[in-house]
Amino acid sequence: MAPGDSVFLCTDGVTEAVSADGSMFGDDRLADSLKSVAGLDSLSVIENDIRDVYVFSKGVDQSDDITTLALRYVGQRRARGERKTYLFTAASKASNSACSVVIVAGCSWIALTSTGMRPT
Q: Which residue from 94, 96, 95 is spatially nearest to 70, judged by alpha carbons?
């Protein structure tokens, strides 16, 4: 990855969100939503996506969770004598689920939970 590259993950509840007429949000709407925020920070990406899903569904109760995670690679650093550390910014939002994701950054485990990031 190069600095500024991003990764977006979501549950199928995002693409399968249903509108009042029974149509699904789908992959194409998700792609359009993500294109509109290309280059923005992780929090802006997920806030935009969640907003687009809720505007599309216009208050229709959803049967599945709507959970997103965005990571943006910032770069790497290595202090003298230390192992290389890969730096990311991250944001996550979840509805109807407990969000718990584990990623590897450098050689350390970082736990991302709905309450924030903590080294493990």
A: 94
